């Protein structure tokens, strides 16, 4: 059956305008930090409409949309200042459960991701195990029908908001390091879990360190086979940079910065020349469109089970660097006095201070999830061959 994409777009536009609460759209439009409150409320609305997981197959509770429908969805939602989909559940661990989970695990975990009941964070990085993730040391020993976990995770985004963590643990030290790793789903309220905040330079709270002291979790919370978690991890990491929501976030940012430049130009009333900033915005717009095309090709390759090659690295690098350029444009538009007000504890209520925070936050985009230097090495090795 052929799909009327124009009618589909109109349906999405009407839904976004009527169903996304104004208070949520205001947070997004202003470039403020989107928290669990906004994400979760929007997820419940989408799920009630049957659109809770645009990238999942129908049999798992998703929409079953084709790639063009998914891209149109992300584009329309961004154009109407709706929050992007929360990635940890829908884009990361959800697909892993669909691929590696037992029927019982799918029945237990997937509906709670769809309706927003379970809110996940990722327990991968450890002190000394960032780029070399396979060197992780957090352990899990089998004790009857449970695993007992000891160790530490760091740079854990949203751990202070999450009620679940999907985490890599070492269940064996006998095999080579990749073969001794397993993937567990762990409730954050389990006895022995401690979350401590890590305050970042932007003044927002995203990051945490998480400690596990004799934490017990059901053995049937193991995804895949014991000792074969590295297979699950690679499957997740390959998809981590590919959900269309990644480009949707970039499109949202571009729209927000365009508003900032327009508002600043209007406030300046001809006293400042904004032509250079507008030219830089056009260049960023071209990059956003290019990233969308790359995302469409890569997602289609995933669906058709073709090798992705370096596409995830290219997309990650483009999105990170473009986000940094966009927030630099916004900061140039609001002017240097914004920094003074921010440092004088203006806080998030002052619009110009919000763009200081956005600027600071996007400095991490070329570090978190694999540095730009690592991505360039991956791309060079693939295209030119290892030296």
From TrEMBL:
Coiled coil: none annotated. GO terms for cellular component: plasma membrane. Residues 121-215 form the Acyl-CoA oxidase/dehydrogenase middle domain. Transmembrane segments: none annotated. Residues 227-383 form the Acyl-CoA dehydrogenase/oxidase C-terminal domain. Keywords: FAD, Flavoprotein, Oxidoreductase. Residues 6-116 form the Acyl-CoA dehydrogenase/oxidase N-terminal domain. Its cofactor is FAD. One of its GO terms (molecular function) is flavin adenine dinucleotide binding. Belongs to the acyl-CoA dehydrogenase family. This is Acyl-CoA dehydrogenase family protein.
């Amino acid at each position: 059956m052929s799909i009327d994409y124009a009618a589909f777009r109109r349906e999405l536009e009407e839904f976004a305008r009527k169903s996304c609460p104004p208070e949520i759209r205001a947070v997004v439009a202003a470039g403020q930090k989107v928290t669990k409150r906004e994400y979760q409320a929007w997820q419940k609305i989408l799920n009630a409409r049957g659109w809770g997981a645009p990238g999942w197959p129908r049999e798992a509770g998703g929409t079953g949309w084709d790639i063009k429908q998914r891209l149109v969805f992300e584009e329309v939602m961004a154009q109407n200042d709706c929050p992007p989909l929360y990635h940890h559940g829908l884009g990361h661990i959800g697909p892993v459960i669909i691929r590696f989970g037992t029927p019982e695990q799918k029945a237990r975990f997937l509906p709670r991701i769809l309706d927003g009941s379970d809110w996940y964070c990722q327990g991968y990085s450890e002190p000394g195990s960032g780029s070399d993730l396979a060197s992780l040391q957090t352990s899990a020993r089998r004790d009857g029908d449970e695993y007992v976990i000891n160790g530490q995770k760091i740079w854990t985004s949203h751990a202070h908001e999450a009620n679940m963590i999907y985490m890599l643990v070492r269940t064996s030290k006998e095999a080579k390091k990749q073969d001794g790793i397993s993937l567990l789903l762990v409730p954050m309220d389990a006895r022995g879990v401690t979350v401590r905040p890590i305050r970042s330079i932007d003044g927002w709270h995203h990051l945490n360190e998480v400690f596990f002291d004799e934490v017990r979790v059901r053995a049937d919370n193991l995804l895949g086979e014991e000792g074969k978690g590295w297979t699950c991890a690679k499957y997740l990491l390959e998809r981590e940079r590919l959900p269309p929501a990644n480009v949707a976030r970039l499109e949202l940012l571009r729209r927000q910065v365009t508003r900032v430049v327009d508002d600043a130009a209007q406030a300046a009333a001809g006293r400042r020349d904004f032509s250079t900033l507008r030219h830089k915005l056009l260049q960023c717009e071209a990059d956003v469109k290019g990233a969308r095309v790359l995302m469409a090709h890569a997602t289609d390759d995933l669906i058709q089970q073709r090798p992705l090659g370096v596409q995830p690295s290219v997309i990650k690098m483009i999105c990170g660097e473009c986000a940094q350029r966009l927030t630099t444009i916004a900061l140039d538009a609001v002017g240097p006095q914004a920094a003074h007000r921010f440092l004088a504890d203006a806080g998030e209520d002052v619009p110009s201070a919000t763009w200081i925070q956005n600027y600071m936050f996007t400095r991490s985009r070329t570090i978190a999830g694999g540095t730009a230097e690592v991505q360039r090495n991956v791309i060079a090795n693939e295209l030119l061959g290892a030296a």
